[in-house]
Amino acid sequence: MNFFSWKCLGWVLLLAVLIIAPIGRGGYIISVLSLWLVYSIAAMGLNLTLGYAGQISLAQASFMAIGAYVSALLSMAGWPWLTTVPFSLLAAFVVGILLGYPALRVQGHYLAFVTLAFNTLVFLVLRNEDWLTGGIYGLSGMPRPNFSLFGFTLFDATQNLHFYYFILLLTVISALALWGIVRSPWGRAFKALRENPIRAESLGLDTRRITLLAFAIGSAYGGLSGAIMSPLVQFIDPASFTFAQSLRILLMVVVGGIGSFFGPFLGAAMAIILPEFMRFTDKYYLIIYALAVIIVLIFSPKGLWGMVENAGARIATWRKARATS
Amino acid sequence: MSSPVLSVKNISKSFGGIRAVRDVSLAVQPGEILGLIGPNGSGKSTLFNCILGQLQPDSGEVQFQGKPMSGLRPSALSRMGIGRTFQQLSVFPQLSVLENVILAGQEHKGSMLSRLLGKPDVGLTAEADQMIDFFRLTHLRNNPAGAMSYGQQKLLDAAMAFMSEPKLVLLDEPAGGVNPTMLGQLRDRLATFNREHQTTFVVIEHNMEFVMSLCHRVIVLAEGEIIAQGTPEEVRANQTVINAYLGG
Known about the structure:
The structure holds two protein chains of two kinds. By secondary structure, chain A is mainly alpha-helical. Chain A contains 14 helices and four strands. The mean pLDDT of chain A is 93. Chain B has a domain at 1-81 and 210-248: P-loop containing nucleotide triphosphate hydrolases (Rossmann fold, 3-Layer(aba) Sandwich). In chain B, β9 (217-222) and β10 (225-230) form a beta hairpin. The mean pLDDT of chain B is 93. Chains A and B meet through α8 and α9 of A and α2, α3 and α4 of B.
């Protein structure tokens, strides 16, 4: 069995686990798994901007907010949820381009502070413009989507399990789209921008356009994540999209393995699922979670996916040694 | 004589009170390999940067095939057919050798959208393999570029500069830090590429043996001015050049 076949088998097994995992579980577990998928999408987007293209952003939560509020407001105005999603994506994409402009002039810590300021700005708008956003009370009661075809219900998203499968489908589509992007010449251009922008420009890459695209696409993933979160939680408020939340998404990317395709899924699992499963330790669960994060980063600076890769490399070396002996 | 590929007309550049380049004019003919030499501080790099638009000259003009180049971004210069290498290593260390070479050619193929929706290699794998083979790097094809030796990375750097089939390539100290064995290989590859493709080179270099054996014509700069030019033999014998730079 070659490497590609192993990889395909891994994909199928992973998908099977994700399909089976919530069956027979209570609503709470299904909600946690759904949230994990939602944050995985947001982290995938940030991973593209930061991990692949090397553009630091501390504002991913604000793009979730843009997606969530656009979707919520349109849904509450009577639009079917599915028709609100393109608008959420578009809004986040356009604002992402605007946020990308400072990245053409500043980099590193300076860019981090620009994006931090942007996150704060979005938070303040959401909090203060209560005629539109509901202010600190937020918006609630967004209907969940219901998909019927010729009177036959395909997804009844009022049921947690159905909605989980629907989110899983969207996550798989998002992941495949991102896989296509990072494997395309665009992905190569993003990596070139990260590694040596001056050389990239001298080879004909329009680094300005690539930078803006990295921000826009990463932000659109944030927007999609927010658009899904709106009917999932059925309540959104500014406190859900603070700078701290952006840092949490950044943590998912770093802990998962920055610049690795699967890293965001692992990082989001560590940030969303692990603390919930550690609740049996009562008041110590956050301490254990924090220690786990520190240990991962000390022993594997490339994050959880780096650990997986190292394990894979060791197994390959062991198999080679066994075959030759 | 055919019209020059590169024309530099009366370029001057000062930094404060220091006149780094003084009224320099030169023309590079198609297929020519021109060497720019001179002691440290002679204005070679400043002239190079003025040609490539990284510095705005105080006066004068630079033309590529009769068209002004001033104010154009490096990506636009690349699309016009101007390639370059850098003094420092400028490969993409985490990408494989093959990916580095494909990257160097991909922006010259198709539109932005076609590059997203088309083949991941933009149909460049065969061409990239030829280039990798030409620079004797086939055995390292799938290795990360950052894991190669300094000299091998210099070879890769040159391979990348040629991948877009440029008409003019500006090489900034290509021999710097390269060991003698690899240096011979680099010189041989550059000379062969020039002979086979008639690509024009402008080379800044301190290594006299490398310059004298590679270049068709050499221009010597000192204190921002051209003090001599001619064939390598003429320059080597020029007393002004011996006094100002070569010594002996």
